[in-house]
Design goal:
Layout lengths: L36 E3 L18 H10 L4 E3 L10 H10 L3 E9 L9 H14 L3 E6 L14 H20 L3 E4 L10 H10 L3 E5 H6 L4 H7 L4 E6 L1 E2 L1 H9 L4 H6 L3 E2 L8 H10 L6 E3 L15 H16 L14 H17 L33
Helix pairs in contact: 2-3, 3-4, 7-10
């Protein structure tokens, strides 16, 4: 099918992680299958947002990653690992963890602001640690993820151009760049994901939680554009809390505090279907386990590692084909309605496309408004 027939374009980035090369970077991080499960410090409450909560020490986090059998980790926010790349690499080796790469918020939408020098510095650090995946997010320029500006056409043009520039820059350094759709960034909802897929060639990080919170069915997206999926963050969420965040009844931070993120298999994301789709389409990248959490103090008992262990065991069983425990409902009696709504949202997204790239007649916004989207971001002043 062409894009005009209802599919977003697949621009040749293979599921293994690079334009036109099925054996590229996504397969170098570790063995296939269950051996390619990685962790992320956010599951222990370690986050780049100021005031996010109590921050656990790297020694505890990395030791607990090793304890539950994770093979690698994302690098975490600035300051989590030593600033010197060689020192950071030694710390990871001491814990028998491979460096995957890291989550890098960067302003992409501001005309006159060049993100290249900032990313060049990050890539120089990657050369020292051996990290191979640059996980970009389209930073709003505001603190945290509870509000964001609306973009005009010039800002969208700048954002899409910068995505391609940074993707090419990373490739020159032997690194794969992916865009992470994320709540509270400039690429959050279904229409914005579609616009990135239409307007750039960057690969995607399939974050199953953030996509679903933003109104995109991650399993359906993986089916539609498998060649654009080059990195995966596996999250599970409570659908009823996610719906409150999506509607603006509570903030993203409040959602995390209420327990929106659940251990894999205990929420409303169909993790088994997503892993199955990726496996059938030849995905060879990492599965990074994430369960965003906010700690108020040093845990007296096991703390976050208990949920990470549950998630790791669940994903291993999915990847190896072993029986998995029954996926409990999240306590939302309208769970089926939530999934039906997700399907309607995704179908509406696909209907946004017609052969000339305009919205179909009768769609919100009208056929005379190419590229427009009925979703409205939570408004704030555009930072400059």
């Amino acid at each position: 099918m062409s894009a005009g027939q209802g599919l977003v374009p697949d621009n040749g980035v293979t599921g293994n992680g690079a334009p036109g090369d099925a054996g590229h970077l996504g397969n170098r991080g570790g063995p296939a299958g269950a051996g390619k499960i990685a962790g992320a410090p956010i599951s222990w409450g370690v986050c780049e947002v100021p005031g996010w909560g109590h921050q656990l020490s790297p020694d505890r986090v990395l030791a607990e990653m090793t304890e539950v059998g994770l093979a690698a980790t994302e690098l975490g926010p600035a300051g989590f690992l030593p600033d010197d790349p060689g020192h950071a690499a030694r710390v990871l080796r001491q814990h028998h963890l491979a460096p995957v790469g890291g989550f890098v918020p960067v302003r992409l939408h501001v005309p006159g602001h060049d993100p290249v020098p900032e990313i060049e510095q990050v890539l120089r650090g990657y050369a020292g640690t051996g990290a191979r995946t640059l996980v970009l997010s389209a930073d709003s320029g505001l603190a945290g993820y509870d509000t964001r500006p609306a973009l005009d056409e010039d800002s969208w043009t700048t954002l899409l151009r910068n995505l391609d520039r940074l993707s090419a820059l990373a490739a020159q350094h032997g690194v794969l760049a992916v865009l992470h759709p994320h709540v509270g960034t400039m690429v959050e909802n279904s229409c914005e994901v579609r616009r990135v897929l239409d307007g750039s060639s960057v690969a995607l990080c399939l974050d199953t939680g953030h996509l679903l919170i933003g109104g995109t069915d991650p399993a359906e997206l993986a089916r539609q554009v498998p060649g654009r999926i080059a990195h995966t963050h596996l999250k599970d969420v409570n659908g009823s809390i996610a719906a409150k965040v999506r509607s603006g009844r509570i903030t993203y931070t409040e959602g995390v505090q209420e327990g929106m993120y659940r251990p894999l298999g205990a929420g409303d994301v169909d993790v088994e279907a997503i892993v199955s789709v990726l496996g059938r389409r030849g995905y060879g990248g990492w599965y990074v386990l994430e369960q965003d959490t906010i700690l108020t103090e040093e845990p007296a008992g096991e703390g976050p590692v208990a949920d990470v262990r549950t998630s790791a065991e669940y994903v291993r069983s999915v990847l190896t084909g072993a029986p998995t425990p029954h996926r409990p409902l999240s306590g939302d009696p309208g769970r089926s309605r939530f999934h039906q709504r997700s399907a309607r949202v995704y179908s509406s997204w696909l209907r946004c496309l017609s052969r000339d790239g305009r919205r179909a007649p009768g769609e919100p916004g009208g056929a005379d408004r190419p590229g427009r989207c009925s979703f409205r971001p939570r408004s704030a002043a555009v930072p400059r």
